[in-house]
Design a protein that fits this description.
The protein is an all-beta fold. The chain is built from no helices and 19 strands. The chain has one domain.
Amino acid sequence: GNDRIEGNGGLDRLDGGAGNDTMLGGLGQDFMQGGSGNDVMFGGGMADRMFGGFDDDRMYGEAANDTLEGNAGNDLLDGGLGADKLNGGLGLDILIGGAGNDMLTGGASADVFAFVSDLDGNDTILDFEDGIDLIQFDGITGVAGFGDLVISASGGGSLVTAGSVSVLVAGVATGDLTADDFSFDPLVV
């Protein structure tokens, strides 16, 4: 069924099973498994691990260094604070690293790597697919369009600087990043 599961303090394992579930990790270091259904998961104060199912899930890491994996479906992954690892898996996913230096993997299909605050960290996109994926800047001070970006070669990829936010796009040459790879519209989730 459609369950609400809370982890409280400690190392908890939360399994939503079938249904549209809401899981709250609480204060401990938690493991959350979505199962089938459109699930919503919230981490807590420690490093949590969240795994979506085959439907459209929403995961919010909140504080600490979290691991969020969308699996199949069109998922929203928001790392929150900390150095997070986000992997969209299959589907049309939106990945928001949040504050901290995050590692972002979109997975198969067209994904959006979104940066929505001046506080977003120095993130790395590991699998940007030119012409398929999109990098979105929304709410970054002084960034309204492609002309506001600084793109330079760095470590076998391209470093994109947008105001106070920097993003390393691994394995993609600077000449391959064009205005078509970016969006500056408000993020719709």
